[in-house]
Design a protein that fits this description.
By secondary structure, this protein is mainly β. 8% of the residues lie in helices and 49% in strands. It has a 22-stranded antiparallel barrel. A 5-stranded mixed β-sheet has the order 5-11-12-9-10. Strands 19-18-42-41 form a 4-stranded antiparallel β-sheet, with no helix packed on it. Strand 35 and strand 36 form a beta hairpin. The radius of gyration is 36 Å and the shape is globular.
Length: 827
Amino acid sequence: MTRLYLRGIDLGGKMNAVNAVRAPRSLRSPIAFVAPNDNIQIETSLKVTVACLVAAGSIAGAEAQESPLPPVTIDAPVTRPRPPAATPTPEQIRVRNELRRLARERQKQEQAAPKPAANTAGNQPPDRNPYADPAAPYKADRVASPKFTEPLANTPRTVTVLTKEILQDKNATTLKEVGRSTAGVTLGTGEGGNAFGDRFFIRGFDARNDVFIDGVRDPGVSIRENFFTEQVEILKGPASSFAGRGTTGGAINIVTKQATDRNFYNAESTLGTDATRRITIDANQVITPTLSMRVDGMFQNAGVAGRDYVFDDRWGGLVAAKWTPSDTVKITANYIHTDLDALPDFGVPYNKPALAPWTDTGVSRNTFYGFVNRDFQKTKQDIATINGEFQINDNVTVSNKLREGRSVLNYVGTLPEQNGNPPPRQGFVNLNPQSRYQVTDVTADQTDATIKFDTGPIRNTAVIGSEISRERVSVDSYTGLASEVIGAGAFTGSGALLNVSVFNPPNLLPFNGTPRLTGNPTVVPVDTKSLYLIETANYRDFVILNGGIRYDDYDVSATKAGKTVALSSGLVNYNAGIVVKPLPFASVYAAYATSANPVGAEIDGTSTTYGGLNPTATVNQIFAPQRNKAYEVGTKWELFDRHLLATAALFRTETENARETVPAGRPGAGTIVAGASSYVQGIDLEVAGKITDRWSVFGGLVLMESEVTKSVVPTNVGDKLANVAHQSFTTLTKYQFTDNLEIGGQAIYASKIYGGTLLAANQGTVLPEHWRFDAFVEYKINSNWSTKVAVNNILNKTYYDAFYQSAAPFVLIAPGRAAYWIVQAKL
C-alpha cells in the first residue's frame, strides 16, 4: 500500500483524524482520504499529481508562517447544568419491565429448545404433525388440548402419544389396533349388555366410554378408523378434572387432522394378503392468504388374516377448513364421515376342562362360528366440529368449540358359548345371537379462557372453562334371527342354534327371513354441565406446580316400555402435581388425582353392574358414584439432543364403592349392590423419539399387580382383576441405513389374562401369554415416491385379544400373518 508523507510525517497514521472531517467538494477523492487499512494501489501519474499538490501546500504554508498574525481571544468554556432526568410514568415502567421479561423468556426458550437435526432444519414436510418434534416425529412434544399448558416433559403424569408416523409404521389403521399394540392397554368385549366395539382397559380399568375426539367425549362405543388421525393421546391414571366423569384408568383422545398453511397432495395405495385393497388421500390447499382447506379420503376392501369368511370393508372422508381473518382470530372446522361394513367375528369358544381356547386344543384357528347369510355389522360416524379462537391480548385467549355428532352401531352376530340349561356336552357349542341397533347423538359446547400472568418470578397460566353437553343413546335389538331350513325347532325362539360341533359349525346355512327391530328401544339421555379451573405456576422452569378442579352436574335417565329410572349427581374432582427440574432436560414429579364413575356413566350398557342403567329391572340401581384416586411419582428425561423422551413412573390407583351383582346361591342373588373396592399398582416405563439422526424408537413396559380388597363375595377378596394383561411390553424401532432405505420392526408382548365375573379373576380360566413380531422395509424412490413392504405377525402366532366375562366364556381371536405392499406419493 502506498503511504503519503508530509515534511517527514506519515500521513497514513493521521488519516483517522482527517476522516472525521468533511472535506470540501473539490478535495474529495479516493487519494486525498485513504484509510490506513485500505488496500489501494496508486498509479504513477497520480503519485506525481499528489506530490505537486503537497509541494504547493508546503510553499503556501511557509509564506503564511512569515506573515504576522493578529491576536485571537477565546472565551473560556461555560459549564451549563444538565437538565434533570424525567421521571418515568407507571405505564413506561410497566412496558420496560414487560420488554425485559419477554427478552428473558426468549433467551430461556432459545436455551431450552431442542436442537434441530442438521438434515431437517428448514426442510420440514408441509404435512408434519404440529405437536411432534420436527426432527424426531416419534416424539410428541405436547398434547393438543389447551388444558395442558406445559410440554409433556413438564407434565406431572404419564401420557402415551402415538404420532401419525408411529401409526403408519405400526400399520395401525384402526383404534383397536392401537390398543392391541400399546403397553398398559388391554382390549375388552361387550359383555353384560354392553356394545361390541372399541373397548379398552387402561391400567386395569374399563375405559370404553372414555374416548374423546379433539377433546370432546365420543360416547356410546363405536368402531373407529385412523385415516383422519394426527395422533392418539392416552392419558393414564384418573383424569376427571380434565375430562369429566369416568376415566378411572385414563382416557384416550383422538386428535384429528386440520387444515394447514402449506399446500400438499399425498396419496397411498396398499395391496395385501387376504384380498386387501386400500387407498387413502390427504390434500391441503391454501385458497387465499387467510383461508385453507384440507380433504382426506379412505377406501378399503379386505379380509381378515387367519379367519374364514370374515371381511372388513370401509370408506370415509374428512373436510377441514381454517380461516384467519386477522392475527387475533382463528376459525377452524371439520367434518368426518366413516362407513364400515364387516362380517362380525365374536371369536372362538373356550375349552374349560383344558383351560384353553378350543383353537389351542385341536380346532383350526380359521374356524368361524357365525352365520354368513344372517350376520352383519355396519358402523357409521358423522362428526362436525367448529372451533373459534380469539386472542384478546398477549395474555388472554378465549376459545369456543361446538360439536354435533352421530354414530350408528348396527349388527347381528353369533356368540360361541358353552352355556345353556343343560349346557352342551364336551366338544359342542351353542351359537347364540347377539344383536344391536344403537344410535348415539352428542351435542357439546366447550369454552376455555387461557390467562397468562406473572407473580414476581413465577409464570402463571390459568385455564378457566365450561362445558355443556347432551348425550343420547337409543339401543334396540333384532328379532327373526332363526333359520327354518334345517327343521322346525332346531333354532330357539331367540335364534340360537344349540349343540353344534366345535369342529364344524354350519356357517353357510340359508336364512329365509330378514332380521327386524323390536321397536322397543332403551333410550338413555345424559345431560352434563361442567365448570373447571386448571392452574400451572412455573418458577424459572425449575419448579412447576399444576392443579385443577372440576365440577360436573350430571343427570342421566333410562326409559324402556314406559318405565324410567333416573339419577342426578354432583361430581367434584381435582388433581395436583409438582415437577422439579434439576437439569433443563430432566424432571422428577409427584401427582395425585381423583375421578368418579356415577351410575349410568357407560351409556351403551343395559346393566348397572357394567356401568349402565336398566329401566325394567326390579332391583335398586341408584347408588352413590364409584370413587377413584391415584398416586404417581416419576421422572422424565429428554436425551440425545432432547430428541428422545424417556419416562418412568410408579403408580397406584384405588377404587371404592364399586357396583357388583350378587351371584346365584347367595342371599339376595341377582340384586345389585355397591361397596366393592380394588387397587392396581405398578411401574410404567416409556420411550419415544430418536437415539441418533437415523435411529427412531417408541415403546413401553408396564408391570402391574391388582387385588380385589372388598366384595359381596368373600372368596373374591384377594383375587386379581379379571380380563387384564398385568404385564405388557411393546417396542417399535426403525433405522435409516441410507438416505433412501429404512428398515424397522415391532415386538409386542402380553402376559396371561385371567377370566372371571364381577371383575374378579374367579373362574380359573386363563388366556396364554403371547409375543407378536412385525417388520417393514421402506425405500424412498425420489422426493415424491416411496414404497414399503410390511408384514404383521410374522410368525403367524395364534393369540387372543380378550375374554368374554361370564361363567361360560368365549374369547376374541387376533388376526394371523398379513403382508402388505404400500406405495406412497407426495407432491
